[in-house]
Design brief:
Strand content: under 5%
Radius of gyration: 23 Å
Order of helices and strands: HHHHHHHHH
Distance between the termini: 50 Å
Largest sheet: none
Structural class: mainly alpha
Helix content: 55-70%
Length: about 260
């Protein structure tokens, strides 16, 4: 911990704060986090834009990647969660899944090694987007009394509504976006810190002034680092899936309140 403190005198925040490339101290400030989000957007456009231009009978190359991704999201998220009506939501859910995944996976790609979703603003934006969409869909599908219907589930004794209404109001319309944002943010922050700690341990043990005793222990943090890299790849995929499937659940509930 002393070594980490020496390398990062400003604390763990130093792992996540990046200087602006341009527009410093303005609303247009552009740094590494913004660059990762921009690159992730460009990759999504490239894969699904180019993959849908020439639709060969037997897909190959990027078309195969695009179609495989589309079918996986449609089968395992859209239709599985929302039913047949979920097919029309597949483009949105597909974009959401891969956008989050690409921002997450930069964590293990040298020399970037930083997940854009470890900055709270991005998970918050994505969570608020989901929150706004399911509320708008709820009003469209269920009418102007959508919120009232959502917080007064049928079959509850009238006296219990005193307790049920505030609980439902908070859990559906406040906790949902908060939990979506915090879950994604916290997992990516934890992973980034752990990878940094293992990498610093490897670096310090490999210095020329390290004794033979210290050099003998290099394999321990190194294999730990390799294991964490594999784990972070899984986390990047899993967090994108969880965020997307919960979005589908919330929108599906707004469309079909009986479910």
């Amino acid at each position: 911990m002393v070594v980490v403190a020496e390398l990062f005198p400003r604390g763990v925040n130093e792992l996540f704060d990046w200087p602006a490339m341009f527009g410093k101290d303005t609303l247009l400030a552009f740094n590494k986090t913004a660059l990762m989000a921009l690159i992730s957007t460009a990759i999504c456009i490239a894969i699904f834009g180019l993959g849908s231009r020439k639709r060969a009978l037997v897909p190959v190359g990027i078309q195969n990647v695009a179609e495989t991704g589309y079918e996986a999201v449609e089968t395992n998220i859209s239709v599985e969660v929302m039913g047949a009506e979920g097919r029309k939501w597949t483009p949105f859910l597909l974009t959401l899944f891969f956008f989050i995944f690409f921002m997450n996976i930069f964590e293990v790609i040298p020399p970037i090694q930083f997940p854009a979703t470890s900055r709270f603003a991005i998970p918050v934006f994505l969570a608020l987007q989901t929150w706004l969409i399911f509320i708008v869909v709820g009003f469209i599908k269920q009418g102007p009394f959508y919120i009232l219907k959502a917080i007064t589930p049928p079959g509850v004794p009238k006296l219990l509504y005193i307790l049920v209404i505030p609980i439902e109001l908070v859990s559906i319309f406040l906790i949902r976006p908060f939990s979506l944002a915090v879950r994604l943010f916290a997992n990516m922050v934890a992973g980034h810190v752990l990878l940094t700690v293992f990498a610093v341990m490897c670096w310090e043990l490999s210095k020329m002034d390290s004794g033979t005793y210290q050099l003998a222990f290099i394999p321990l943090p190194f294999f730990g680092l390799m294991a964490m890299v594999g784990f972070e790849i899984l986390v990047a995929l899993l967090q994108a899936y969880i965020f997307t499937i919960l979005t589908a659940v919330y929108v599906g509930e707004a469309i079909h309140p009986e479910h």
